[in-house]
Specification:
This protein has 14 helices and 15 strands.
Length: 430
């Protein structure tokens, strides 16, 4: 939807005031959040390229129009106030100037509260890839001959960080293939068997929600099991936070990376790194950022000047989500997934890569046609969907059983969009 249509849509809801300046009106609050009428009011708050059905929201998330407005205003502020914003402007003229460092600390405190962790356990990064690179490269407890494990459905950049430990730390790198089809207990049993079969494993990459398949792993149980065997877990939370409800603080994770510009809907170029306070010394500081025994998480990263307007827009993005409610968001994503999967699931030529267990899926689900397996063929299928049907979904490869197409709807997706996908797939299958 373009901005003019958004303004017309919100004007039509007058005289209802805006709730917490998020773009959600009292009229919307009064609507049934399972109704398409309600979700249309959310769709109307996004400016999306017209003429295409974007089902590749997993690449990055769009800012809603209210969040974009906040970002533009913050950009104007930073551009106007230049170094006074990071220097002594507020100290000498507090009625005129804000201070970036104070506001950034407030953002971290805000995020820590949402994640149920300490503010001294979080630091902002540019994306989850940077977070995970810092965690794997900085992890100093490995000894030559120790093993590190990852799976074929972990994200490629994270796999690369694990492989690098062979050169950096002298580690033995183990790659395994996850159960396919997946099941809740099957995942737990699989990881336990991998650890028992490879007693030298000391470190494991674990993905909460696979970017390749959409499968949600039972990470709380897997982390507890791994710890009981003396295995440390570094958790990839790129695609789960903001897509469905969970309590991160309850997972028992020691290390984790997050994206803020995917399902949270913050501006591009924002991630988070989490290090449990009592494990901080297990991650080396960056060079020149403090000597041995340094316990400051900010000293585990060195990025220089950051996108300050993006950082201070983060609370607005989360406030927009909160105005909807994460439980409602999770239910919506499952509804969108089911809208198209349930039209295809009985076709023997089709395979969904997420199971029909609501604990193990949200919005993202990849699929295969049983007649094709090669990554190249799925690249061709992606181009067919885009050119002929104007559906933008993502081809994925690198998995043991072959390629797939990932479907990742967004809050601006409608059930009609999902119906269009199912119709296109049926047309292609003939």
């Amino acid at each position: 939807m373009n901005r003019r249509k958004f303004l017309q849509s919100t004007a039509a809801l007058a005289p209802f005031p805006v709730v917490a300046q998020t773009g959600i009106t009292k009229a919307q609050v009064a609507l049934d959040k399972t109704s398409e009428a309600y979700w249309q009011t959310i769709i109307d708050q996004y400016d999306v390229a017209e003429g295409y059905n974007n089902l590749n929201a997993g690449h990055w998330g769009l800012m809603s129009i209210p969040v974009m407005d906040a970002y533009l205003e913050n950009t104007r502020k930073v551009n106007r106030d230049y170094s006074l914003y990071v220097g002594s402007g507020k100290a000498v003229d507090p009625d005129r100037f804000d201070n970036y460092w104070q506001e950034a600390d407030e953002v971290i405190a805000f995020l820590a509260n949402k994640l149920n962790v300490g503010a001294d356990e979080l630091v902002l990064t540019r994306n989850i890839s940077e977070s995970m690179q810092l965690l794997f490269a900085g992890y100093n407890k490995l000894r030559p001959g120790d093993s590190v494990v990852f799976t074929d459905t972990d994200y490629g950049s994270m796999q690369a960080e694990v492989r690098y430990l062979e050169e950096r730390r002298g580690a033995n790198v183990i790659s395994v293939s996850v159960p396919d089809p997946a099941s809740y207990q099957g995942f737990i049993d699989f990881y336990e068997k991998v650890i028992k079969d490879n007693p030298t494993i000391k470190l494991m990459l674990l993905t909460h929600m696979s970017s390749r398949t959409g499968v949600i792993a039972p990470v709380k149980e897997i982390i507890a099991m791994a710890k009981s065997h003396g295995v440390t877990v570094i958790l990839d939370v790129a695609h789960s936070w903001g897509q469905f409800d969970f309590d991160f603080g309850d997972f028992g994770a020691d290390f984790a990376g997050f994206n803020l510009h995917k399902w949270i809907g913050a501006p591009l170029g924002l991630g988070l790194m989490y290090i449990r306070k009592d494990r901080i010394l297990d991650i080396d500081p960056k060079s020149g950022k403090g000597g041995k025994g340094n316990t400051e998480i900010k000293n585990r990263i060195q990025t220089g000047t950051v996108n300050m307007p993006a950082v201070i827009t983060v609370p607005k993005a989360i406030e927009f989500q909160d105005s909807i409610g994460i439980k409602h968001i999770g239910r919506r994503f499952r509804d969108l997934r089911n809208q198209w999967v349930n039209q295809m699931i009985d076709d023997d030529r089709f395979e969904a890569l997420t199971p029909q267990d609501e604990r193990m899926y949200a919005g993202i689900t990849s699929f295969r046609f049983r007649a094709i397996t090669s990554d190249e063929d799925y690249g061709k299928l992606h181009r067919t969907l885009l050119s002929k049907y104007k559906i933008n979904a993502s081809p994925y490869g690198g998995m043991r059983r072959g390629g797939a197409i990932r479907v990742s709807p967004a809050l601006y997706s409608s059930k009609a969009d999902m119906d269009a996908l199912a119709l296109a797939l049926k047309d292609i299958l003939g």
